[in-house]
């Protein structure tokens, strides 16, 4: 190498601080999740629709001419089946009660029930699913429990719960959670079985890492997308199940209005007075569609394999 070529090169001193700065990454899992989610405009719009629906359910009761309690007391048979007008924005029901306040009050009850049930199913399903998939000695026991419960239609469990414990908001929420965690637990269990014996988990166990830390740090990030998807799908499924049970007379008690009860009450009149069915049905449909689209989009965004 001649002198001219030597002048083009120089030794660089090693700096630990500079090396650490170069190797630093500002990657954040949840930041990446939301960045991926906001790229899907249709899902963002649907999420906005749902939140607007929830917020408006509270505003609607404030701007309406009648509140729910007043409408129950002031039932007037002479006003029965009044079509939507300037006085009664959604018309009146068969007893002459304002339908606007009933629909939005029922929407609050149904959404509250769905969120509570979804959260309960998520917590119980994830805990049982992790134990079921990670502890091999318990696999047979949980599998048999799953098979016994899953082979009987859930509507039978809900019917027995309604007949034995009574029809109330609390009883229905507890019964739905008690028999609704199966799908979440099965999905979590299958994923835990896939990841429990990966090399990095074997290395962690050899180093004495506690089981709970392996589950939370090494395995749970791969479960988030499935958990979010099941959580999102559980909400419209809960509302649909409640509507079905109420339609059959096995849902909430008559003093606790819900969208299902309004649909049940409308079944005898909707041919002559279709607005009694249309308004609650539209809200149920909006909740179902929005959560399906948002749940799928957020599930894809939460999958670590989709992060760069």
Automatic annotation (TrEMBL):
Keywords: Cell membrane, Membrane, Peptide transport, Protein transport, Transmembrane, Transmembrane helix, Transport. It is a multi-pass membrane protein. The chain crosses the membrane at residues 43-61, 113-135, 147-166, 172-193, 214-233, 275-294. InterPro entries: BP-dependent_transpt_permease, MetI-like, MetI-like_sf, OppC_N, OppC_permease. It is found in: Cell membrane. PROSITE patterns: ABC_TM1. Residues 111-295 form the ABC transmembrane type-1 domain. NCBIfam families: MMSYN1_0166. Belongs to the binding-protein-dependent transport system permease family. OppBC subfamily. PANTHER family: OLIGOPEPTIDE TRANSPORT SYSTEM PERMEASE PROTEIN AMID, OLIGOPEPTIDE TRANSPORT SYSTEM PERMEASE PROTEIN APPC. This is ABC transporter permease. It comes from Enterocloster alcoholdehydrogenati.
């Amino acid at each position: 190498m001649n002198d001219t070529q030597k002048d083009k090169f120089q030794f660089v001193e090693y700096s630990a601080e500079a090396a650490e700065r170069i190797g630093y990454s500002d990657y954040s899992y949840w930041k990446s999740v939301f960045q991926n989610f906001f790229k899907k405009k249709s899902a963002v719009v649907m999420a906005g629709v749902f939140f607007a629906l929830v917020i408006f359910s509270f505003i609607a009761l404030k701007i309406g001419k009648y509140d729910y309690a007043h409408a129950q007391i002031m039932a007037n048979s002479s006003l029965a089946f009044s079509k939507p007008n300037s006085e009664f924005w959604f018309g009146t029901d068969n007893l002459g009660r304002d339908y606007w306040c009933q629909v939005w009050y029922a929407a609050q009850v149904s959404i509250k029930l769905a969120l509570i049930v979804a959260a309960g199913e998520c917590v119980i399903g994830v805990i049982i699913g992790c134990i079921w998939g990670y502890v091999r000695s318990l696999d047979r026991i949980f599998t048999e429990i799953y098979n016994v419960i899953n082979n009987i239609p859930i509507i039978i469990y809900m019917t027995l719960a309604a007949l034995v414990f009574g029809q109330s908001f609390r009883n229905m929420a507890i019964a739905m959670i008690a028999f609704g965690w199966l799908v979440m637990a099965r999905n979590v269990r299958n994923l835990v079985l896939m990841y429990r014996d990966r090399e990095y988990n074997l290395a962690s166990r050899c180093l004495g890492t506690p089981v709970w830390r392996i589950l939370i740090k090494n395995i749970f990030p791969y479960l988030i997308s499935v958990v979010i998807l099941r959580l999102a799908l559980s909400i419209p499924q809960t509302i649909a199940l409640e509507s079905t049970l109420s339609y059959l007379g096995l849902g909430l008690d008559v003093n606790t209005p819900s969208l299902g009860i309004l649909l049940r009450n409308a079944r005898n009149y909707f041919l002559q007075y279709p607005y009694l069915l249309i308004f609650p049905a539209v809200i149920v449909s909006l909740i179902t569609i929005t959560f399906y689209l948002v749940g799928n989009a957020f599930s894809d965004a939460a999958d670590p394999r989709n992060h760069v």
